[in-house]
Amino acid sequence: MSRISKPIRAFPVSPATAHGVSLGIGLAVLLVCWSGLAEDRAEGTKAASAPRAFIDRLRPAPRDGGFAMDDYWIGTGGDIVHGEDGRYHLITSRFSKAYPFYPFWLTNYELVRAVSDRPEGPYRFAEVLGNDRAGAANAGKGTSRYSSAIQRHGDQWILFYTETTHTHAIPSPEQAVSSGSQDLPAAREAHANQRIGLATAPAITGPWTFREEPILSPRPGHWDSYLVCNPAPCLLEDGSCLLIYKSIGFIGDTMRLGVARAEHWEGRYERVTDEPIFEFRADQPVEDPFLWRNGEGFEILLRDWLGNITGEIKAGVHGFSDDGVHWMLSDHPKAWSKTIRWDDGTRTTMHDV
Question: Which has the closest alpha carbon to 108: 128, 127, 91?
C-alpha cells in the first residue's frame, strides 16, 4: 500500500546543477501538483487505496523560479517557510565557487536566508546566518554548516542543521585550484566530525541563537558510529520532535537512515531503535531525507544515491510510515527525476556536481 498526502510544513527541496550553473532548488520537487489528490477524492476514491504516484503530481517547474547565486555553490537541504512578514523565506547553504565543490563542501559551507514574494521564487539572497561561528565548542576551529531544516513551534523558529569542525587551515582559492586539494586534511577531519545542531530565533529574520553543543552525535559501537548529518525533523503539536538522520559506521559504509525522538524539541534526543529504518541492501545507499506528517501518519522523501531503488541515479524516493519508526516504500517509489520539465515545454537533465 502506498500513500500520498500534502506536506504540512514546507515544500520539499533538493540541490540541482545544470550545465555548470547552480540552480539551488529542485523546482520540479518544489512544485508538487496536489490537485490530483482532490480529483481522486472527487471520484470517490481514497488516497491511501488508489493514489497517484508522487512523481505524477509534479507540475512543470517555472523557468524564473528557484534560487541561484552565480558565484556560489548552493547546498543540499533547506526549507521554505511563510514568514511573519507575509513573504516566503528559504533557509539553505552556500560557499564560493572560487573553490572546487569537492572537497570544500565539507569545510566552507555557511547557512543563508533568501526571500521571495512567491513560494516558487525567484528567491533573493538576504543574509548569512550565524556567520560569527561563536561558541566555546568551536573556539579555534573552522566550522561549516549545511543540510538545514526549519520548523516553528509557538513563538519560536527552530533550525536544525549539520555542523562540522576542523583544526586545519583552508588553502586560498588559488592554492586549492592549483593543487587539486582532493586529499585535504581539513576535509578529512570535517567528514568525521559531522553532527546535528540546533538554533532558535523569535522571528524568521532573527536574531539566531546557535547552541554550542550538538543535539545528536554518533554512537560508538553501533551502525551510526562515524557521523550523523542530514536532519529531517517533524515537530508535533505537543512540542515533541521526531528526527530522521543519516549516518555510516565507517568510511565506505552504506549510507543509512536512523530515527531519534525528543519529548520536547529542545532535547534530549534519543534513538527510538538501535537499527536503521528501511531494510535497504548494501548497494542502496540513501541520503537527504525530508519528513512530514500527513494527518494519518508520516511520509518521507529520500535521494537514491546509486539509482538501485528507482532505476535513476540520485532520483527521489517516496516512503510512508504509521508511526515514524517502521517504514515502507510506496508501490511506485520514484518521487522525482533529475530530468526537469519546465513550464516553457523544454526539459533539462541536471548534472551531478
Answer: 128
